[in-house]
Structures are given as C-alpha cells and as structure tokens.
Design goal:
The complex is a heterodimer of chains A (321) and B (425). Chain A is mainly α and 321 residues long. Chain A is 78% helix and 0% strand. Chain A folds into two domains: 67 residues, no CATH class; 237 residues, Orthogonal Bundle (MetI-like fold), CATH 1.10.3720.10. Chain A has 14 helices and no strands. In chain A, 30% of the residues are buried. Chain B has 425 residues and is of the alpha+beta class. In chain B, 47% of the residues lie in helices and 13% in strands. In chain B, a hairpin with a 2-residue loop joins strand 4 and strand 5. Chain B starts with a helix and ends with a helix. The chains are: A mainly alpha (321), B alpha+beta (425). At the A-B interface, helix 2 and helix 13 of A face helix 1, helix 4 and helix 17 of B.
C-alpha cells in the first residue's frame, strides 16, 4: 500500500521543482523571492491536513492504547502496572493458543495460495467449462463472513448434510466444529473457500501478462503439464504469487473474526482462538480493557512485522519489473 | 503570496475544526442536554426497549416517571445484545456512558460495580415487593433493581415419559439414570438436550443439579463466596456432568451444538427428554409449550445425590436496571429505575415478553400449567450457583466442560483449575 501511494506522489513533485527552478533563474526581484519562500512553505501547509488527521486519529489513539496497556484493570484502573498485563498474556494458555493458531495459519498459507493458483491455471489452460468455473469460484467472495459461517454451521453440524453423506459411504460422523483437533482446520478450510475467489482473480490477471509463446515453445519441446507449470508458469508468475501470499496472509490474520464468532465462538476448548477474538472477549466479556490493550499491542507488533515484510516483498517485486 | 497560502490556511482551519468536532460528542453526551437547563435528560441503554413486546412496558414506565419528574426527558437507546457489554464497557471506561442501563444479574454487573451508584437508599420501599435482588448486589450494596427473574428449572417432556411408562420424575440420581435408560429404550430420545458449543452447558448444569448434590450449608456458603472446591460434593457435580458424556446421555455432538438456540429445537422435537432451560426471555416454558404442547411441559427438582441435600429451584434476578456513578442527577436516575420496576409496568412485560417478572405481587401468565409449578417453587428457591462466580472462572468452566465431554481433561484437573481461578478473583 504505502509504496503504491508514494511513487506517483513523488513524480509530480520533481516536475514542480524543475519548473520552480527555471522561474527562479528568470525572476530576481524581491516579490519573487517572497513568493519563493511561500512556495517552499506551501507543500508543508498542503500536507498538514493529512498529517494532522493521521496524527490525531491514528497515531495518538495508538499511543494511548499502548500507554493504556501498561495500566491495570478493575480496581487498579488507571494505575501503572508496568509489564504485568504482558506477563499475564504470556501466562495465559488461551493467548498462547491464539498465537499458536497464528503460526498454524502461516503454515497453512501455501495451501491457501496453491488452491487458487492451481484452479486459475486450469482456467487459463481452458479446461472444459472454464467460463462457468471462473464465475462460480468467485461467487463465495461476495458473501459476508457471517453468512458463510451460518451456511457452514448447518453443513458441518453433527447431524448435518456432510455427516449424512459420510454416513451413506460408511464413514463415521466427524464432529467438525466440536472436536478441537478438527475444528481449527474446518474453520481455516471455510475461510479459504470463502476468500480464494479474490486470489483467483489476481492469478488470472497475472496470467493475462504471461507470454503465451513461452508455453507454446514448452509444448513444442514436449513438456508435460506438470513440467509446464513448474518450469514456465510458476517462474513467470512469481510476482503475482508473492502478492497473493502477502494479501492472503493479511486476510487470514485480520478477517477471520466473523467466521470464528459465528462458527465456533473460539471453541471447542478454546482451540480456535485468534488474537483478535481474544481481544474482543477480554474487552467485552471479561471487562479487562487494559489486558485487551496489551493483546492488541502484541497483535499490532505481529502485523507490523508482517506489514514490513509485505512492503519489502512488494518493493523487490517492483524492482524486478 | 495570498494565492498560494490561503487555500492551505483554509484547509488547515477546516481540519482543526473537523478534529475538534470529531472528539467533542464523545465527551458530552449528557452535557448537551444539561445546557438546556432546567430541563435535563437521562439516557438509558438496554437491549429490550426496541422490541415490540417491550413497547407497553416502556410506555408505562415513561408515563410513571413523567409524573415524578416532568422536566426530565428520557431517551431509550436499544443496543444489539451481542455487542452490548463491549459497547457499554468502552463507554464506561471513558466515563461517558448512559445514566441508566440494563444489566444481566451476576458477574456482568458485579464486575462493573465500581462504576455504578449504590441504590439502597432509593429502592428501600421496593425491597420486599421485588425478588432477585442478590444478583444485583455486591459486598452488601445493591447496584440494580430486578425486572425479571431468571432461573434454571429442569424441564421434561411428559409425552415421552408417558411413552416410557414413567409416572413421576425421579427424586434420586440413580432413579434418574434408570429413567434415562427406560426413555432411551422406549422412545429413542436422549436423556439430556445439551448445547455446549459456547460452553454454557456447565453453568446450567451446576445450577440445575447443584441443590441435589451440595448440602444446604455448602450451598449457602457457595453463594456467600465461601466456595469449598475441595469438597467431594463439588467434585461430584462435575463427575455427574462427565458421566452424562461418558454414558452418552446427551444428544450427539453436544460440543458443537449451540445453546442459543439450536439445542432448544432438540428438546422441542422430542429428540431429548430433559433440558435444563431458562425461566425468562428464551428457552423456557412458553417456547417449549408451543412445540410439545403447554400441558406436556413439566419441571422437576434436581435429583438427590447427597443425603441431607434439599433440592430447590435455582433462580436470581434476571435482568435489571442500574445507575451510573457519574450521572448528573442520581435521584432522578434512581426514580427512573423505580418507574421501570412498578407492578403495572412489570405485569405488561411479564405478559407480553413471556417472562417470570421480579414482582411477587403480580400473577404469572396462566396459559400454561407449568408456570404455576415454577411460581410455587419460587418461595423455597435459592440463588443459582453459577451466578455467584466471576465471569473469568465461568469462561474457563465453559472450556473445561468441553474437555470433560471430549475426555481431554479429568474431573480432578478441571476442579483444580477452577478452584485456582475462583480463588484468584
């Protein structure tokens, strides 16, 4: 995001400065000098609104929140408690589960990227019915997480259609949302189902830039489908893949709250907690706003690391361009 | 110079003005009304006033209050219940919340009692007329006035009992287990409808079954805050909960079935013979009666496990109104709470919302025989065990109960963890 925003902003700036420089050489009297000074000030005045809004509505509340995380809850409200909230977080098995689940999401990321990538490849290779699949795959992306969650609550219920289907082929019922070992994968699976349409579209856009003659050449040389994918498609789409990796990661870390809320409420046994759900519970249900602030700060730091990685990845991708 | 600087100055001025107005409303929700003195305004937050069934109730309460304080306007702001305590917690943190607000009895109001006004001096007259005060009290001070009573009767399906040839509900745990066998064989129904997806199951279980397991002294001590987690009887309650899982007495998939509201349909469709339900709002006599017939809904007291235990109906104040500490006119706010708990207003609420009202002088709706049975039990009833616990331990109990059912924790481990959490808070 930031890189995309700054690069077009810089270019007009350069133009403006050269024009400015030209003028200065021509005009030499006092009024012009004053105008020169005011023109030097103008950029600062013009960016002031944006800076003020960011400082007042983003950075200041952020600082307040971090500051708040060092105070106590309940009777200790408002008094400084140092790192007590952070130590409590480290001790809380529920928060540990939430962080471990973040790790699990990172591990499952390749799957979440490979599925739309593979399906986009098939659509690009014009498998029969590819037009139909293209629209069907995108369809879940327009549903809100709450609706998706409600649909899968019914589908995955213990006496729901999926278990009935398993029953007809002789497999025992699986408690999809009630077994802690299964539930987190069920929720991640639904999250992938609900969001892969967007990644698919990004992949298809990437395919549009793919040089078809490379594929033709590979085919002429007798490459199999697997060899074409591995040696031609993946290297050509490396930037797209990087981009999808980063956006899918952000999506998983920040937008699963709705699904969790509707599908598992963090359960069973607290196995599907994610940091944002933990924050919500502590703030809203446990009346521990300062502890929730500490958890938010930890989540913020995680997101900051992810965000910085994202920027560096995108910047590198841009340089390769 | 003018040409280049002026637009910037204007933008700057607008921004400063925008920032100012963006921060202002949050700080003075009541202040703006106070400016129009002498008339002032009270803001009420709840999750009921927007419902059609509460319309007459609110109108009656407003009319009663207008008689006492004609200069004070009242604004009801209904909030979505799912977000209620999140919004309220945020508002209270900045001391800018409503003047009067609805609370669930128990942990929710106790956790926030340091932001609430003790109402004892204002509500003394109502003390004997209304029941359920304990759920809104902490350390001997009353912070809210009850509107409804909430409790956990053990409901049973009389039609299934008839099919299984059982004439009266069991009075001991062994007899109860034998009945469960009979019911399963004769009707195929599970013994209990248990929805434990949110982890609410053990709260209902603890309160529904507790009076048959704990001795009266243990029970009263538990409510008074002296909870003896080392008592074998406390452990027994959790052993019985695990037993329902081990012996497959519950409906299948209990850990993935939501208490609100999937589990009620399991009972309503006759797939389970018993359910520990509620008295007011949802999952109660009225809901069940609509499906299985008002005359087929029965209630039973907890089966006796321990000699000397005296089973009783567990109930508390369900919901009630409280007053914020920072309200400008505490007298008017407390009077509004009193207007919201008049006999006249409460009888409307009881009849239209299908609730057992806190007012003991009004007759409960008589369209279902089981209501009479519930009301008859009120006098001997005691506060529910789980309501006396703090919300953190309740939350932990929810997770541990899922582990008990799935077998990934033992009763000893669960009781030990609960004891540690309970004593810490």
């Amino acid at each position: 995001m930031p890189t995309r925003n700054t690069s077009p902003a810089v270019r007009p700036g350069h133009l403006g400065r050269t024009v400015e420089g030209g003028k200065k050489e021509r005009a030499r009297h006092g009024a012009a000098r004053r105008r020169g000074r005011s023109e030097r000030l103008a950029p600062y005045v013009l960016i002031a609104p944006a800076v003020l809004i960011i400082v007042a509505l983003r950075l200041y509340p952020l600082a307040l929140g971090v500051n708040f995380s060092f105070t106590g809850d309940g009777e200790a409200n408002g008094t400084a408690v140092g790192f007590a909230n952070y130590l409590e977080l480290l001790d809380d098995p529920l928060f540990q589960t939430a962080l471990a689940n973040v790790g699990l999401l990172v591990l499952l990321l390749p799957v979440a990227v490979a599925i739309p990538g593979l399906l986009a490849t098939f659509i690009y290779l014009k498998v029969p019915g590819h037009r139909f699949f293209r629209s069907v795959y995108f369809f879940p992306a327009v549903l809100s997480p709450v609706i998706v969650g409600a649909i899968f609550n019914l589908m995955l219920a213990f006496d729901g259609p999926l278990n009935e289907l398993l029953g007809t082929i002789g497999l025992g019922p699986v408690d999809w949302l009630g077994d802690p070992g299964v539930a987190k994968f069920a929720v991640v699976g639904v999250q992938i189902w609900a969001t892969f349409g967007m990644a698919l579209v990004v992949f298809l856009a990437g395919f549009a830039t793919l040089d078809a003659s490379l594929l033709d050449a590979a085919r002429v040389d007798g490459a199999s489908l697997r060899q074409s994918i591995w040696h031609v498609i993946i290297p050509s789409l490396s930037q797209t893949i990087q981009f999808v990796f980063v956006t899918t990661m952000i999506g998983m870390l920040t937008s699963m709250f709705g699904l969790l809320y509707v599908m598992t409420s963090g359960g069973p046994e607290g196995s599907t907690y994610l940091p944002e759900y933990y924050i919500w519970i502590q703030q809203g249900q446990m009346n521990r706003p300062a502890l929730a602030s500490a958890a938010s700060t930890v989540l913020f730091l995680i997101m900051l690391v992810v965000g910085l990685l994202q920027i560096s990845v995108l910047r590198r991708a841009g340089r390769e361009d | 110079m003018k040409r280049t600087l002026w637009p910037g100055v204007v933008v700057l001025a607008l921004t400063v003005a925008a920032c100012g107005s963006a921060t202002r409303p949050a700080s003075t929700p009541t202040g703006s009304a106070a400016a129009a003195a002498p008339a002032s305004k009270l803001v009420v937050w709840d999750w009921k006033s927007g419902e059609p069934y509460a319309k007459t109730y609110i109108e009656k309460a407003k009319a009663d209050f207008a008689k006492k304080h004609p200069n004070v306007t009242v604004e009801f702001v209904p909030q979505p219940f799912e977000q209620y305590y999140t919004l309220l917690g945020a508002a209270m943190q900045t001391k800018t919340g409503p003047d009067v607000m609805l609370f669930n009895g128990g942990g929710q109001i106790r956790d926030r009692s340091d932001s609430l006004l003790p109402l004892d001096e204002y509500v003394a007259e109502d003390k004997s007329r209304l029941a359920g005060w304990e759920a809104f009290a902490k350390d001997g001070k009353t912070y809210g006035a009850p509107v409804t009573l909430q409790g956990h009767p053990i409901y049973y399906n009389k039609a299934l009992y008839e099919k299984a040839g059982i004439t009266a509900p069991a009075t001991t745990w062994d007899e109860f287990l034998a009945n469960c066998d009979k019911l399963k064989k004769a009707t195929g129904a599970a013994c209990f409808a248990l929805g434990n997806k949110e982890g609410i199951g053990p709260q209902f279980w603890l309160s529904g079954m507790g009076s048959g397991v704990l001795t009266p002294a243990e029970y009263d001590g538990w409510i008074a805050g002296k909870r003896d987690w080392k008592s074998p009887n406390v452990k027994k309650i959790f052993e019985m909960f695990k037993e329902t899982g081990d012996k497959k007495l519950n409906n299948e998939g209990a850990n993935s079935t939501a208490m609100f509201t999937d589990i009620f349909s399991v009972f309503n469709t006759g797939k389970a013979a018993h359910i520990i339900g509620l008295m007011s709002d949802i999952g109660h006599w009225k809901d069940f009666g609509e499906f299985i017939g008002p005359d087929k809904v029965g209630i039973m007291l907890a089966p006796v496990v321990t000699d000397g235990a005296t089973p009783s109906l567990p109930y508390d104040g369900g919901i009630g109104y409280a007053v914020a500490k920072w309200t400008k006119d505490p007298k008017a706010a407390a009077d509004l709470v009193r207007s919201l708990t008049t006999t006249d207003a409460l009888s409307s609420f009881s009849a239209e919302a299908g609730a057992i009202a806190s007012d003991t002088t009004i007759s409960a709706p008589q369209d279902a025989p089981v209501v009479g049975e519930i009301v008859a039990q009120l006098k001997a009833g005691k506060p529910a065990l789980h309501v006396a616990m703090d919300s953190k331990t309740i939350d932990l109990m929810g997770r541990l109960s899922q582990k008990l059912l799935s077998g990934s924790a033992t009763v000893d481990e669960a009781v030990e963890e609960l004891a540690a959490s309970d004593q810490e808070n």
